[in-house]
Amino acid sequence: MTKNFDIVLALPKGRILKEAMPLLARAGIEPEAGFDDEQDRRLTFATNVEGLGIIRVRSFDVATFVAFGAAHLGIAGSDVVMEFDYPENYSPLDLGIGKCRIMVAEPADIGMDDDPSRWSHVSVATKYPELTKRHFAARGVQAECIKLNGAMELAPKLGLARRIVDLVDTGKTLKDNGLIEVEHIADISSRLVVNRAGLKTRPEVMGGWIQRIREAVNGD
Ligand code: PRP
After folding, report:
1. What span, in angstroms and rounded, lies between the C-alpha atoms of 132 and 116?
2. How far does the centroid of ligand 1 lie from the alpha carbon of residue 103, in Å?
3. What's the CA gap between 151 and 155, in Å, rounded?
4. Which residue's alpha carbon is at the smallest distance from atom 18 of ligand 1?
5. CATH classification of the domain holding 139
6. pLDDT digit string (tens) for 130-151?
7. How far is the CA of 198 from the centre of ligand 1 (A)?
8. Residue 211: inside a domain, yes or no?
């Protein structure tokens, strides 16, 4: 059970996890057997490090587990860090993994001749309503966001919203759905997320973990 662990590290399922595993190995952290088996339905795993446990959660929930102190540390995409923007969290380290970008996209036939600098109001389907509103507000554009949890590429075609804001990696998902990138919002990579209160109350332990992971990132 999670309660038995002195330190809990929250890791996201999916593509970041694959890239995070070698990094954790360099930091000397090896999860118990079954952790990388998607058929294994457990959510909590022990590691080779005494007192260190790992929880496997949805990528969108990592920052929330850390902010509420349910996990002491986490690995989250900077998209998630920006969307939730928890004042309780501190993200001291770019891990150099999970690299992609967050973009505004729209149907290719409209996007070819569109000029984002002329927009005054946009309707957007996205998993990232807060980040999207902040981005557009900063450049004086009013954004009406429809929150979806996936498949937003369908939204323009079905009249839900004219544009989408989503992660783009290879660009295949956009292309396969007749969309093109029209505005870059941010480059994304994964970050180490730490609970600020935890760092304040246990500076040696938490600082030690930050340093250990920093060395693994830098290859020291
Ligand atoms: C992300 C994103 C796009 C896709 C982009 O989804 O939401 O759908 O990846 O990648 P591409 O540019 O290489 O095609 P993800 O696979 O993470 O799953 P999700 O739909 O559950 O968010």
Report:
1. 14
2. 12
3. 8
4. 150
5. 3.40.190.10
6. 999 999 999 999 999 999 999 9
7. 32
8. yes
Distance CA 25, CA 48 (A): 10
Amino acid at 39: Q
pLDDT of 61 above 70? yes
User: Which residue's CA is minimally distant from atom 20 of ligand 1?
Assistant: 150
With respect to residue 1, please indicate whether it lies within any of the assigned structural domains. no
Q: Is any ligand 1 atom within 6 A of the Cβ of residue 150?
A: yes
Closest listed residue to residue 213, CA positions, set 195, 187, 189, 191: 191
Global confidence as pTM = 0.94
Range of the domain at 126: 100-187
- Ligand 1 centre distance from Cα of residue 93 (Å): 24
CA of 164 to the centre of ligand 1 (A): 13
Q: Using 50, 70 and 90 to split pLDDT, how confident is the model at 4?
A: confident
Cα angle 142-148-149, degrees, rounded to a multiple of 5: 135
Q: 173 in ligand 1 pocket by Cβ < 6 Å?
A: yes
Task: Tell me if 90 sits within 8 A of 199, measured CB to CB.
Answer: yes
pLDDT, one tens digit per residue, over 17-45 is 999 999 999 999 999 999 988 899 999 99
For residues 117 and 167, state if they share a domain: yes
For a pocket test of ligand 1, which of 58, 101, 167 has the largest count of ligand atoms closer than 8 A to its C-beta?
A: 167
What is the band of 3 on the pLDDT scale with cuts at 50, 70, 90? low
- CA 170 to ligand 1 center in whole angstroms: 9
Q: Is the pLDDT of residue 197 over 60?
A: yes
Is residue 172 lining ligand 1, measured as CB closer than 6 Å? yes
